[in-house]
Design a protein that fits this description.
Structural class: mainly alpha
CATH superfamily: Phosphate transport system protein phou homolog 2, domain 2
Number of domains: 1
Strand content: under 5%
Mean pLDDT: 89
Shape: elongated
CATH topology: Methane Monooxygenase Hydroxylase, Chain G, domain 1
Radius of gyration: 20 Å
Number of strands: 0
Low-confidence stretches: 227-233
Helix content: over 70%
């Protein structure tokens, strides 16, 4: 029974790695299209998204079968749960790569504006986060996962900075309202990409160290605001 279980786990890991590799290529190509303005790259990204969706269904089914047949516990159970969560995050990253390409098609004539707004820098940061999050999961690398969590603050700061920059451009020149609106949607997608990288890193910490940190910052703020003056926590 244990031998069959390990075989199923190895096959699951293999499929996750294959899916992660495709997603990594999709994200890389999406930002190459953004940086170069080459919309031809985008057509390949759309077609590859179907392959990611197929892996999503396959991995979900594998996880459900392993849970039903082997009833894993402790670390094995955490791995299956983490695999299901990472699978979901990767599928969404593939969708975001497609969304980025949609905005590249609409903003190709405004490359200088993209550069001035530092959107390319934000993209590089998010792309590195995705790659590091994937590597941390494949290698069970806790330190790399923690680095991803730290990097998310930088992307959030850039997102706010870029939003303010684009709003100011629209206020100055009404002809930029449409391209700047598309770029705001674009940066929102990049920010979401970084969030998914963060979620993968959190899943790594859950699997390797049995630490559940999802929504930790938000929950801490909530509980602090809920404490009455003088109340002991």
């Amino acid at each position: 029974m244990r031998e069959n279980f390990q075989k199923e786990i190895e096959e699951l890991k293999s499929n996750l790695i294959k899916m992660a590799s495709i997603v990594d290529d999709q994200v890389e190509n999406a930002f190459n299209a953004l940086e170069s303005g080459d919309i031809e790259i985008c057509s390949g990204i759309k077609s590859k998204d179907i392959e990611i969706d197929a892996f999503d269904n396959l991995i979900q089914t594998q996880c459900e079968n392993i849970l039903a047949l082997f009833q894993p516990v402790a670390g094995d159970l955490r791995f299956i749960i983490a695999a299901m969560m990472v699978n979901s995050q990767l599928e969404r990253c593939g969708d975001i790569a497609v969304n980025i390409c949609q905005r590249v098609r609409k903003t190709g004539d405004h490359h200088q504006l993209i550069v001035e707004a530092e959107i390319l820098e934000m993209g590089r940061q998010a792309k590195d986060m995705i790659r590091n999050a994937i590597d941390s999961f494949i290698g069970n690398n806790v330190e790399l996962a923690k680095n991803v969590l730290t990097a998310d603050d930088r992307v959030d700061d850039l997102n706010k900075q870029i939003f303010n920059f684009l709003v100011s451009k629209m206020q100055i020149d009404s002809s930029l309202v449409e391209p700047c609106s598309h770029l705001i949607v674009l940066t929102r997608n990049i920010e979401r990409l970084a969030d998914h990288a963060t979620n993968i890193a959190e899943d790594v910490l859950f699997f390797v160290e049995a630490i559940l940190i999802s929504h930790k910052k938000k929950l801490l703020r909530y509980y602090k605001s809920s404490v009455e003056p003088g109340e002991v926590t």
